[in-house]
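Researcher: Here's my situation. A collaborator sent me these components and asked whether they could plausibly form a single complex. I don't have experimental data yet, so a predicted model of the whole assembly would be a useful starting point for our discussion.
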Amino acid sequence: MTKIKVATDWLEACAGCHMSFLDIDDRILELLKHVELHSTPITDLKHPPEEGVDVGILTGAVGNTHQLEVARRMRERCKILIAMGDCATFGGICTMLNFFDKEEALRRGYVETESTVEGRIPRSEEIARPLEKVLAVDEVVPVDVHLPGCPPSADAIWFVLTELLAGRMPVLAGDNLKYD
Amino acid sequence: MTKVQITIDGQKIAAEAGSTVLEAAREAGLDIPTLCHHPALSNWGACRICLVEIERQRALQTACTFPVTEGMVVHTESEKVVAARKFVLQLLFSERNHYCMYCQMSGDCELQSLAYRYGLTEWPYPRPVEPLAVDATRQYFVMDHNRCILCRRCVRACAELVANHTLGVRERGIHSMITADLNVPMGESSCIQCGTCLQVCPTGALMDLKSAYRGRETQVERTRSTCVGCSIGCGIELVSRANHLVRIEGDWDAEVNKGLLCVVGRFEPLFDDRQRVTQPLVRRRGLLEPCEWDEALGLVAEKLSGDSLAALITTRATNETMTQFGRLFRSLGAEMAAVGSLAPAPGAEGRLTDLAEADVILVVGADLKKDHQVAGAFVRRAVDRGARLALVADADNGLASYATWHVGFDQMDSLVGMAAQASRPVVVCAADLPAEAEAALAPLAGKASFLGLSRGSNSRGAVAAGLPLSRGGEASARVLYILAEDDRLHIPRNGAGFVVAQASYVGPLTDMADVVLPAPIWAEQSGHVTNTEGRVQSVQAALTPPENVWPTVKVLKTLAGRLNLAL
Ligand code: SF4
Ligand code: SF4
Ligand code: SF4
Ligand code: SF4
Ligand code: FES
């Protein structure tokens, strides 16, 4: 049996969702019997292969031009796209920024932080620019499976992956569906 | 009661005529979700989450407002219904900020739990981006418009239960906002901070400063008890976690208050920041120093025997404490008193519920916006319903704007005469009235029902235990024993040579005492209190006192033992 190829990436996120993924503990051995884990931010391979994967997982919201690119590339290179975690599904805590003036937020972050001396807002052409608003993944590319949670529990992640392996679209309910 | 036959989800139900589909379904144990509906409030039909399919009705109907009729067939979870409910939820989540992960209500929120129930995993509509104001101008709780779903439970609670009419809705459509009075900050409005709106809010929009983020329903304990903030004796639920008080809520099932509380009962205990007395203290060379119970009690027992003795007790104490206190100090021949007083009742004693039936309410000397505030809410409700308020009180009385007549004591006779003409007059009297006012009420004996508002939470319990009531300043003896517990009593020393204070907190009493015996606070002891109507109600301990604090009754019994008194 050929293994299912999975790639993951993170956008504007705290890495908590990926930690929760690792929290499936020894079940990862079982998973690896059926799954070939391709690129992830926590392994050496960073980009999904050009020939594509079966399942792509994105965590985090889309807050700048680089993340927009990453999200689009993942969408192009996977068959089923999972938005994992509140930030990816709804925008999550990153969207707090949307309730502030962007310049004010940048100033607060780069200039006015208590530990900063002579700070500057970075505006090089070579780095990503913040978007007007922080967006959920499905505001940027179509998403097939939404898995909310801040982070989603290891059990919920396990449930979604095993349902997909069994050829079913996961339907979240009970303890698997949480927004916090 | 006439019954009508209806069918809900295939189940045949005999429902009460005139009830709503929701009531009939709940009566039969069927669960229709609701948000704007609340059992203590009128039905509104604002949120549309309770939509059901009723055969031969063109559109889906709101179960909370739709009355049952003979032969009605209802489907509560059909495909169409579920789709409509999901749509309603999606709209609610897109309208304002419902990013749950940083909301204090997460885990206990009614909106969130419905989103879980209907499997909401994505928001198909644009997310909100406009921040709304957060109104933190009130002392005890905050209004965060960003989480509000405009269900108007708060508006109805303020109008129908508290009859304070502070809240309303301004603007229309998506611009609608909950507002206070003519759009002033909540803290500058007519709000009396009773917190009833807070208690009924289904979301995180109304946020209790003390209990926010301090524990979800699954993590806290609930203890039914009675408020000892005043002599109304409202039924409360103490919400605690890890031996800390998190919140106080009104008990919807309590006969006295039916869920209502006032600022004194709901918030003030949580903001009590006085320093606890945690061990016995004796004064040596002018300074209070910690000592063992054995030493402190030995010293007290020695002073209690033989010398001229006065003993005062707070009227926040339970009936059990009053009884034990009475036994001990009676057998010691002490001059005893409980610090409180009863209101006059020259006629049949009434109940708070009489206010709901009254056509004329004569309030004499009481400011129900300051004291006995829940009774104030009942009076305002009566006025809303058409009863007339006759006020004998100072010009600045808090209920003045509700009064049809408002006079000073000197013109009281005219209002007494008028009340005598009413068909169901109720007289609400404050304690400590001038003797002339008391006498002026005589013509209403046999005509009106009298609701006296005693001063001190448990003055009636004190009287029942045989303790005389006093203002607390009169006692003079060589030894003074003051059982204050957590009360803020102001008792002068009156030349006493030795003062014992049984107190929960450091304050003026402990400053003057020669021996301080630590006492539990009200939430740490069980027993009974008797409210101003004479109802004996139960007080339940929700917290464990600090390690070295003995129950009040145990201290009294131990003292009796030391003095070889068989009580
Ligand atoms: S009010 Fe309820 S639904 Fe809204 S953010 Fe808070 S917990 Fe979530
Ligand atoms: S504040 Fe709460 S109770 Fe009032 S309308 Fe908003 S959600 Fe409803
Ligand atoms: S606290 Fe009481 S008076 Fe104030 S708005 Fe809420 S219900 Fe009305
Ligand atoms: S009216 Fe009295 S008993 Fe009721 S909550 Fe207020 S203080 Fe407590
Ligand atoms: S509960 Fe029926 S419309 Fe809100």
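Model: Some features of this prediction you could bring to your collaborator: Residues 56 and 74 of chain A are 6 Å apart (CA to CA). Chain A has six helices and seven strands.
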